[in-house]
UniProtKB/TrEMBL annotation:
<feature type="repeat" description="LDL-receptor class B">
    <location>
        <begin position="40"/>
        <end position="82"/>
    </location>
</feature>
<protein>
    <submittedName>
        <fullName>Arrow</fullName>
    </submittedName>
</protein>
<feature type="domain" description="EGF-like">
    <location>
        <begin position="240"/>
        <end position="255"/>
    </location>
</feature>
<keyword id="KW-1003">Cell membrane</keyword>
<feature type="repeat" description="LDL-receptor class B">
    <location>
        <begin position="83"/>
        <end position="127"/>
    </location>
</feature>
<feature type="repeat" description="LDL-receptor class B">
    <location>
        <begin position="128"/>
        <end position="170"/>
    </location>
</feature>
<keyword id="KW-0472">Membrane</keyword>
<keyword id="KW-0245">EGF-like domain</keyword>
<dbReference type="InterPro" id="IPR050778">
    <property type="entry name" value="Cueball_EGF_LRP_Nidogen"/>
</dbReference>
<dbReference type="InterPro" id="IPR000742">
    <property type="entry name" value="EGF"/>
</dbReference>
<keyword id="KW-0732">Signal</keyword>
<dbReference type="Pfam" id="PF14670">
    <property type="entry name" value="FXa_inhibition"/>
</dbReference>
<dbReference type="InterPro" id="IPR000033">
    <property type="entry name" value="LDLR_classB_rpt"/>
</dbReference>
<feature type="repeat" description="LDL-receptor class B">
    <location>
        <begin position="1"/>
        <end position="39"/>
    </location>
</feature>
<keyword id="KW-1015">Disulfide bond</keyword>
<dbReference type="GO" id="GO:0005886">
    <property type="term" value="C:plasma membrane"/>
</dbReference>
<keyword id="KW-0677">Repeat</keyword>
């Protein structure tokens, strides 16, 4: 998880024990966080440095992926089998939802009309859909992963949406004004119920299915042969990448410190 006050990214065992910092340098306002569970990489957004970065789950092999034309990047979500990442930017002048490959290449703008504060994002990987919640329009919407076929899912009693997650047939979200975690059916917006009540200042959330690993890609086996980062791209055309200060050798897999000139 990200901790803005500590200016750190931290981790712990699922029972809360063994807490430790994994990233503490060049962290200003860490916000959204997502795990590539196949390549075992961690992605995060930082609204202070205006960057999207990646590292291994233990914090090593850190690399900046995107550092241009980001103003207030917040939520981030990954599709490791498809080789894509998606993120929101809630800046006042040009709020937007974007997509790129997991190595930051082939970046495209998906949504930039009729959104104001896109706070949360969640993916329905089986149906190739992106869901997002907007704290100003007070809606949860959905579209295809190329930005087409946009529609509203829920539009009532969503006073200040923040976090959004999807598991199975249900969307889960947090709301600052209702001080709750709610859920509803991802297709109809029906079957709505409050999961947790009276929780002040609740921010991000993740719905997870423990012990179940879905999908595969070339990074699963031996990190794709990469010495540092294995970053998948569409069509499983993965690339190896290196942490800051290293470069790939001719085999395109091994990272070394470049020779001084």
């Amino acid at each position: 998880w990200t901790d803005e006050e500590a200016r750190a990214i931290r981790r712990a065992s699922l029972d809360g024990s063994n807490q430790e910092n994994i990233i503490t340098t060049e962290v200003k306002n860490p916000d959204g966080i997502a795990v590539d569970w196949l390549a075992r990489n961690l992605y995060w957004t930082d609204t202070g440095t205006d960057r999207i970065e990646v590292a291994r789950l233990n914090g090593t092999s850190r690399k900046v992926l995107i550092n241009e034309d980001l103003i207030e990047p917040r939520a981030i979500a990954l599709a490791p089998e498809l080789g894509w990442m998606f993120w929101t930017d809630w800046n006042e002048k040009r709020p937007k939802i974007e997509r790129s490959n997991l190595d930051g290449t082939e970046r495209i703008l998906l949504i930039n009309k009729d959104i104001v504060w896109p706070n949360g994002i969640a993916l329905d990987l089986a149906r190739w859909k992106i869901y997002w919640c907007d704290a100003k329009t007070d809606k949860i919407e959905v579209c295809n992963m190329d930005g087409t076929n946009r529609r509203e899912v829920i539009t009532d009693n969503l006073p200040h949406l923040f976090g959004l997650s999807l598991l199975g047939d249900y969307l889960y979200w947090t709301d600052w004004q209702r001080r709750s975690v709610d859920r509803a059916h991802k297709l109809t917006g029906g079957e709505r119920e409050v999961i947790v009540d009276q929780v002040p200042n609740v921010m991000g959330l993740k719905a997870v299915h423990l012990g179940k690993v879905n999908g595969t890609n070339p990074c699963v086996k031996s990190n794709g042969g990469c010495s540092h980062l294995c970053l998948n791209r569409p069509g499983n055309k993965y690339v190896c990448a290196c942490q800051i200060g290293y470069e790939l050798t001719k085999d395109k897999k091994t990272c070394v410190v470049p020779d001084a000139f």
